[in-house]
């Protein structure tokens, strides 16, 4: 599902948060400063097998703005490794960029003797028995900050520059178990959040250290 928002005026030090597929805009003002008004233009595409989501898919929840990914069956249309998140941004003022993923992993266990299935909701590293790998393939131009869940673009968006990134290209599945007594399925509730902010306002707006990009 393609999200398009253009000509978003930044008055003062406005931070723009964009969520894609299920997306909303959240804007908040920080301290007023005497800076030229800035404008950001942002497009985000969520794709499966390089085909943009339309919003009509059975695994898209338009009420709660959630995409459900299949984490165990490579044949599923919404299989995790089919996922791609592509962003194009034009910054009319020098800017910094970061994004984060919100993912809820749900393991469902079905019993061969019948009865009610059990559902466990856990972070990926716990679900996957403390595997340290991040479950999504993040663009190498971004780095993580251990103090928060964001990935930061290791560069500046210069004034009037347009950049296109594939933020995420596939992900790691979960190996489900099947025994004589039960079998498992794993699904992910998935969202992406994007922040673009004037480059000289990262400390005030993002609450990060001034030397984060040094």
Describe it for me?
The protein has one domain. 4% of the residues lie in helices and 50% in strands. It has helices at 124-127, 202-206, and strands at 2-10, 15-20, 25-28, 38-48, 51-52, 60-61, 66-70, 83-91, 95-111, 118-122, 136-138, 142-144, 151-153, 161-171, 182-198. Strands 2, 3, 6, 7, 9, 10, 12, 13 and 15 form a 9-stranded antiparallel β-sheet that branches. Strands 1, 4, 5, 8, 11 and 14 form a 6-stranded antiparallel β-sheet that branches. The model is unreliable at 1-37 (pLDDT under 50).
In short:
The protein is mainly beta and 214 residues long.
Which key features would you list for this structure?
single chain; 214 residues; mainly beta; 9-stranded antiparallel sheet; 6-stranded antiparallel sheet; 2 helices; 15 strands; 4% helix; disordered N terminus
Give me the secondary-structure category: mainly beta
**Series of H and E elements:** EEEEEEEEEEHEEEEEH
Q: What's the β-strand tally?
A: 15
- Principal-axis shape equals elongated
The structural domain count equals: 1
Write the topology of this structure:
Layout: E1 2-10, E2 15-20, E3 25-28, E4 38-48, E5 51-52, E6 60-61, E7 66-70, E8 83-91, E9 95-111, E10 118-122, H1 124-127, E11 136-138, E12 142-144, E13 151-153, E14 161-171, E15 182-198, H2 202-206
